[in-house]
Amino acid sequence: MACAGRPTDGQADGPTVFAKVCATCHGAAGRPTAAMVAQLGVRDLTAPEFRARARVEAVAIQVRTGSANKLMPGFAGTLSEREIDGVARFVVTRLAGATVVTTAGGSDAAAGPGSGARPAVVDAAPVVAEGVDASAAELEDGFRQLARDLATDSRWAVTAWGQAGLGADAAPVRFAVLMTRDERVIHGGYLLEQDPTHRWLLIFDLEGETLPWLGRRRGGGAEPAWIETGDEAITHREDVGTTSETLRLAVRGDRVVVLERVVRVSRQPVQRESFVGDDGCTRCPDLRAFEPRAAIFDVVVGPVADPAALREWPRLR
After folding, report:
1. Strand order in the sheet with 255-265
2. Which domains does the chain have, with CATH numbers?
3. What is the pLDDT of residues 233-260, one digit of tens each?
4. What φ, ψ does residue 96 adopt, rounded to 5°?
5. Can you list the pairs that 118-123 forms with residues at least 24 positions away whose Cβ atoms lie under 8 Å?
6. Which neighbouring-strand residues pair with 173?
7. What is the pTM of this model?
8. In angstroms, how far apart are the furthest CA atoms of the chain?
9. Helix and strand tally (H, E) in the chain?
10. Distances in whole angstroms, Cα of residue 208 to Cα of each of 104, 213, 253
11. Which of 31, 38, 67, 215 is close enough to 72 for a disulfide, judged by CB 3.0 to 4.6 Å?
């Protein structure tokens, strides 16, 4: 049973749309019951881990497309774009308690450490060294190597490491807080493990432009540390107990899309979805609709106005 109500025609008021459509599962104040969390995995929209990364654009995508791996349907055919934008802003500004700012590129983002409309940039080197060295030392080899690769790559700079949970029943997610060397803001990205080789995929939306990027770590020697895959499809697999989900990903236009999804239980396929048809990839869903567990999801950082603020990001325990 889909967890949803149905709004009346013409509703554009965020709180009203939320009450009609979302409150059934998420609760009137954005706090679902313990039973909803335990049985259906409904997200607490007031939880610190959600507040830390809430963005209008990301919430709007979720409302529009739903959650492919949960019971929440998409409302693209039910709500107008005005209603979707209104309820997304209500969730972020009223329930999550974030401050919406507009960057130089015009995109909305929730204010967090280092976010904002091009604040003054100061020398963050001491905090960068402290954050990366202290936290990366506790990470597995794949993350340590990733830190080294990015720190020596002329395009990116690692500023800190941290972790965040994606719900009461989800494992913590380790993520890197990154900023470009030319001081542009990173609106969001994913850091995915490509099982079992400890390769990683990175996808970033940069300030002022959507720049989807699928990257793969290449071997040592004189070769570049990272290569862009372009149109090449990449496979990402996540394992939870005896269940695994495999996604085939590719860049299509200004999106990173899912070409195929396969769910296996005890290594036996139980569900297979191919989104590529005779008309190409018009039905391919955005990766963000799948909420990969091992991912950065819409982290907003840098340019860093106050390096000390980076210390407030959660650290690995």
Report:
1. 234-240, 243-252, 255-265, 268-274
2. 14-98 (1.10.760.10), 125-312 (no CATH)
3. 888 777 777 888 888 888 887 777 889 9
4. -75, -20
5. 118/303, 119/303, 119/305, 120/305, 121/183, 121/303, 121/304, 121/305, 122/304, 122/305, 122/306, 122/307, 123/307
6. 164
7. 0.42
8. 62
9. 8, 12
10. 7, 15, 16
11. 67
